[in-house]
Amino acid sequence: MQSGDEVHTQQIRSTINARSPKILSVSAQGRSAQKAAFPQTLASRQSGGPCSAVALNTEPKSTSRRNGKQDTERTSSRDQDATLLVMRRGTRQNGSIQWSPVQELSTACLPRHRTMNPCPVYEKESKTLFLFFICVLGKTTENHQICTGKNKARLCYVTSKDRGQNWSSTTDLTESVIGHEIGNWATFAVGPGHGIQMKTGRLIIPAYVYYIHCRCFPCHFPLYVKSHAFAFYSEDCGTTWYFGERLSTESCECEMAEIVGQESKSELYCNARSTRGHRVEALSESSGAAFDRPHFAQKLVEPSRGCQGSVVSFAAPEEQDHCLTPNTKTWLLYTHPTDRMKRKALGVYLNKSPLTASGWSKPWIIHHGPSGYSDLSPCEEPNRFACLMECGKKSELEEIAFVEFSLGDIMNNQ
I need a labelling partner for 179 at 20 to 30 A (CA). Which of 42, 216, 347, 405 fits? Predict the structure, then answer.
């Protein structure tokens, strides 16, 4: 389910590091750039149609590194033909990852619904991996829900206590979290991508809603529907969930990152899809309860209908302290297609001044061909990152690939 992309393959991915458990978001494939690890194809378009992905990266007590990848099975490239989530698990030794056969996540579903938009977040205190997703009734399309004003999506999650080896049954939060407000939502979705846990312990799940601003009376038909990014959040280790206020600017699929200032004050950064030529950025001083000062990022371009992108924050390297602005301890990375007209040339952007709207660098292109959705994630090794991406030679729907690179690679290729 992707802001009107009913014929576009939904592809999302995230990575989890279990020794220092945190969500890693990944989203890119394609050719490798200088010094970057050669991309591995994790899924390819076959006779059954493409699938969408979520990757998990865990490190067991042994010296090998285990990885898992979750996909959405589908019978065509249309979102309404998705069926369920699947996962692949791999082992990395000596720099090489071997992926296992596909495993179905049979508990992540509701009867007569299709499962979409996986979005994981790891809760450190309870050592619980939450995998959020939406379940949409039958083959109801996103466009049909928007036109009729009748939401058919459910907010759901499953959990794992053993880094994705086993999963709980599905918990449906729709009534308890959204409640009567759902009557104003034509439809909604989480992610796609990854959630985060802030340093205070608050869990953040990025989301977007097609909000019904005006209806026709007495027939109650929606007259004005607009998409807005927002966040679901929890302050008690995932026991109780709430939803925050919507961004005032029209915005859609988003990812979020925590920016820590020099005085250890945190702000939640939102980077959202737009159909107006540039990404929408906003900051929250209330950790997702509300976002202020939304604006268009002039250095982050969008194709005509927009495209999902990924963002992560990370500690600025100590040897680069002289580059820090007075109010930040963190930098941002962002991945997205760089072409203004088509979904192609996926690039990695660096922002050393994340509280400055003009702080984004020129992109480092890691795949020059057709490119689509992506998801970034920091690796356990400092200043190293992983990315999953949609890509191909003729279409971005051809395959999902995994690539790793370092901060040095990015800085040397700007």
Answer: 216
